Amino acid sequence: ARVVHDSIIPRIKELTSISLSAALAKLEKTCVNKSFELLGYDYMVTDDFRPLLIEVNSNPCLELSCPLLGRMIPLVVNNGYRTYGRSPVRGVSCTPARRTPPSGHS
User: pTM of this prediction?
Assistant: First the structure.
């Protein structure tokens, strides 16, 4: 069981960070305050416990089709709100740039 916490999860975090860094320019840019983009990461673990990134979905299914997903999906969405402003990519802020109101508005 230690292999999950000591090897698999740290490597998944590393692969996720690398993929986000590589795709940073392609991610949706918005000035909408307190919004986020939800990505679905698919991994597989080899027989020797090495996680491999299979794909990243820009529009992951959020169907509550079984009890496990019924518990997990609300947690994922709620954690997205809680982590607003913290980026998994070092040196990158998730906080959107402040919008300048149009002339004559404040």
Answer: 0.67
